[in-house]
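A student in our group prepared the protein record below, which I am reviewing. Here is the record exactly as it was handed to me.
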Amino acid sequence: MKTVFLAALIAGFLLMGTNPIQSQTTDDKLNQMELLKQWQGTWKCEIGKDTIDIQYVNLFGKAMIDSIITVSKGKILAHEMEIWGYDQTHDKIIAAGIGETSPAIYLYAAWFTSKDTMTIVQYQYISSPEKANFKIEWVIKSPDLITRTVFANGKALDVKTYNRVKK
């Protein structure tokens, strides 16, 4: 009887340390920074008559740097710089940016919800993105075509298409 009790006790301790959901592994998790690398390169978007946005996206170690320039009729209207890095605690990408003419820094939290869709909200909503009243969604349509949709209060306000600039 002692042997049966001891075997049951050992089996119980061994079972307590096992995970009952064996099919769900961390391998199923999207590699956020690896997916972000799809942005590397130069992107161009027509945002108005004679006005374009150009984004120069480059690797910086394990992060990315994005230089965004708005040009109208050959004149630079705006220039922003962003750095994108991975926050392991929240499993999200953090973007910090600043414009050339303003000392204000803006912070965003971003994450891929699939291999081709990335959602962005203001950083203060990193833990509760469903509460954000402003959201951006980027969708990779092909290696050379990306769309950006800006949402406010759940309604799409603006959709832009970015094309990769070939070297």
Observations:
- Confidence is low (pLDDT under 50) at residues 1-27.
- Helices lie at 2-16, 32-36.
- Strands lie at 41-48, 51-60, 63-72, 75-87, 92-99, 105-114, 117-122, 134-142, 145-152, 155-164.
- The longest helix spans residues 2-16.
